[in-house]
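Q: I have 371 residues here and want to know how they pack in 3D. Can you give me a structure?
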Amino acid sequence: MKKESLTKQIIRVILLLLLFGMVIWTFYFFYQKSQTPPVTFQTVMPFDTMIVKKTVATGSVTPRKEVNMKSQVSGIIEKLYIVAGQQVKQGDVIAKIKIIPNMLNMANAETRVNTAQINYDNSKIEYDRNKQLFDQSVISKAEFQNYELKIKAVSEELNASQNQLQIIKEGVSKSSGSTSNTLVKSTITGMVLDVPVKEGGQVIESNTFNEGTTICSVANMGEMIFEGKLDESEVGKVHEGMDIVLTIGAIDKESFNAKLEYIAPKGVTENGAIQFLIRASISKDNSAFLRAGYSANADIILDKKEKVMSIPESVLQFEKEKPFVEIETAPQKFEKRTIKTGLSDGINIEILDGIKKGEKIKIPQMNEVSH
């Protein structure tokens, strides 16, 4: 009995010790958790860099001079002599049109020819008869001249009616020689950008009431421009003559210089915002080939300074709208210092006064690193 009682007492003591140890460990654990490690602030020093303040416009690259070639007659495309990408010169034939005559117009023209032919035949008989009389001195020269004038008039009418009929049928008259409205010629020298029609397709003539069918578009690819839109909040900051740097998505690792030459005096509403059209001439210094329609972003240089003392704009803090930074005076000891800033590009900002080179600036808590 005594041995059992001693064993129970030993077990009870051991359990009490274990319980006490667990309580002590729990208190120690929560104490350690409540202790926050000291914060070590990172710092940055002023540096020299180039600050460029700019605004961005989006748009595309287009040829300055692009012309749509249209037919002067309606009909069917009998032959196309060009393909997209081909170089053409002014006056080169690009297509031949086969005329499909209007039956009513042709019937009227044929009637006019027949009438003119009858009048001419009658006048010819009168002329021949009276010429014999004039040669025999039966009638005077003044009387005979009336018949000469009449036959000349009806002859002109016959030629005119025949020409009209031939134009309706073939698009060309006898008197025009090699000149023909059925041949569509390029009006400028350049590259064929697009041929939206095919042989056998129908075309409508270009006139006062109808734009006509475009057979192809030709452009001078040696003179390209940028056309884009600028938001109304930015348009007041720019003016003609400003430098522009173009970045084109289709051309990697290469930028293009341009100069702003036009700002629209009137804006247009797009997606609930007022946008203004701008245009810039692209420098020819770059040898890369620019295709019409390339999308591009234009960085319009508002201001630029080179090799100015700067700091990251993210380290700035403000008190009553006045900028200040915290300067390290001793290891991890900082003091406020009001500064004067200059040009900013949204990432770095120029420092005009308040900081010297070599001084360490505290990075605000949002960017701090704990150790």
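Q: Anything worth noting?
A: The longest helix spans residues 2-34. Helices lie at 2-34, 103-135, 141-170, 232-235.
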